[in-house]
Specification:
By secondary structure, the chain is of the alpha+beta class. It contains 11 helices and 37 strands. Among the domains are: 44 residues; 207 residues, no CATH class.
Length: 689
Amino acid sequence: MFRSRANEKDKGGDGGMNREVSVPLVKTPDGKEFDPKAVQAQESKRRKRRIMKIAVYFMFGVISIGVFAIWLFHKDTVESLRFGSNFILTVKLRSLEIKNNEGDGVLYGDMGRKLLATPYDHCWDDKYESYEANCLYWRKMARLRVEKNDNSSSVCYTLMWEGLQPSFSVEDCFYLQHYHWYGYLNNMTSPWPISGVSLRNEEYYVEYPKEQTENLAPIWFGEQGVAVFVDSSFPFTVSWNETDKRQFCIMSTLEQRDENVPADLLQYTVCQSSSLKDVYTASQNHRQQVDTDFGFKRTHKSFLLPKPIHALSAKENLPELLLQLQRNESQCSLIELYDDWEEEFGDLSVDPIMVDKVDNLIKTAAAHQCYPILPISTFFSYKSKHFEEGINRTFFVQDHLNLVTKMVQWRGQEGAVLDVSNPHAAEWFLGHIRRLIVQLEVRALKLFHLNVPPDSTYHDSNMTYLDYTRIFYRDLASLNISLVLELATGFIPVPVYTPVRMSFYGEPGSSCLNTSIPYSLVLGMSGYSLLIADADRMALQSTTEEMFIRWLQLAIFFPVLEIPSIPLLKEKKMQKFLREVLTLRDVQLLPYLTQVWEEQPELPIIRPLWWLAPQDPQAAVINDQFLIGDRLLVAPVLCEGSGQRQVYLPQGLWKRHGMKPVRGPQTVEVLTKSFNVIPYFWYQEDGEN
């Protein structure tokens, strides 16, 4: 079947090693012959071509994947605004998700709900000729910037909306989900916790001619470890749970007047941490870093008063207080002078008719180490001594028509308001206050709240009416003197004495102080530690003997105690009761309050029950009890005619004076018919006596 040939050529005695050998041909069944070696060579070429083709395909695939990855990375930076793994803003949907360190979503939001579907991109930074990674730009509509401030245990994000056209308004809505939330909405809703509330477009900052009548601190806490707070001066409204989606919405109310100039519309911050306690600390730290313009530095130890403040509600009470001091029947650290100590608001001098009596009071009180609190405002009645000077020197805020005269009505008078953005006006005013401090030996200033009209114009064109209170506080803090607020507005980064409204509300068969503790808890978590149980309201209400006793049983636990000037205190029985509770405060409470303040000045003194029991669902909803520090639980009697009350004790061992320790969590009943019974419990470690 096959034939072989061999051609041999000898090459000069090489032993036959250099020879050509013919490869035998192979015949196929059909009689054709082929060379196997040639076939093998052709197959090798085809194999190499296949390998080259596969290599080219593979290289093309790698290049394609790289190009896709680059595109995907670029696309992701445009589609999402990311800060680590905790903050994700999906741009096309404008949805926000904030996660905890375990990767669980804890807050969801719909951002810029009124933003049209316009093209978007990163903002271009002309200064650095590059795109800003933390800024998104919706063409001809709006910009959103995000700043991050975090540490090892928590993170805060500040969101800043800027409008690029007058028709754009901001509205961001966050889903409340199933969590408990805490914070002030209005005086008709309980802030601790917020429940059963449907609130649509509630004006948080009350505008003129309405008056702010409550302490307003725009911060809301979620039990999942979230805080949302507005730390800017841009006007806004809030709505709460207005639909079945259970949303909390923040909306800007600032109008953009110049269509050619972008307007900063809304700025607020969201903090997230592992617990409510930690997110409180994160929000406090964030605001302290923002509030760098407050240069007020003073040791915190000097602020906790060893004796009460004595409040003069009217000039008619002055002779009685003077007699009490002379007879050693009263004690005080500070005396709050009556509001109308001037003949006209803006005189900045004592009413001539009362000069001698006020001087006598100040000298007598100083002998007992008691010094005045001077109530002041930046309101100048048009009848006051300094009104004309302020007009001539353009020291007053003007309205939209650039008029000053009689532009503001306050406490039944007409006049003008100091332009605190004008440095010359501020220094002029502070000069008068310095003179009064020296003349009257003043140790503290009580700052009256003014609602400045929203359409006011200022020396500083960038100022809004919501900056007013903050700048007023800042200027007075520079005097290195204690401050007492009439009403808290926003956040103040210095220690200030802050009264909490103590009003009785009618309940079936009695009157109750049922809003006092919730408001106190909100203010404490808002950064106001030196709370006072407000005594002014006691003088205004028809206070019965039992109501005053119940108020006093609550007030002695507050960091600062204020005693009102009311007719009831002229009675021997009430004077005896007052001495007893003051002894209790001096012996048991004040040493502990001082310890808490000195050791933990950055934390609230009055704390909610969940501070000790963050996982306890019952502690999360208690709003008629509170903690002082971590060791004292107070459950005051808040209503008239109450003979008993239920007290919830969280986990741990709790001891009441004269009784055996009780281990929580459990609810105990305390008989309170006797006015000598004040329900409070001390936390004890196991084995402690």
